Amino acid sequence: MSDYLGRVKLFLILAFFVLAAAAIAYDRLWLAPGRDCEAAHNWWDPKLRICGRTVWIPDLTHRRAPSSAQKPWDMLPQKVR
Prior knowledge:
This protein is mostly helical. Helices cover about 55% and strands about 5% of the residues. A two-stranded antiparallel sheet has the order 1-2. It is rod-shaped.
């Protein structure tokens, strides 16, 4: 009987460590990139798992910006930048 309980105890301890390692791996490999991207104030696309950044149209097209326009990152509060 004690041999059976020893095996069950070993199995439960092993299962605990495997599940804990899986939870840590899920957090580091799947959730952390999204958190890091959003912490940098970029856009995270969970479907494609891509971190996108703000692109201002005049920078992209090399056209002159309207005089009243501000870049989006200039409108952010100072604490956020």
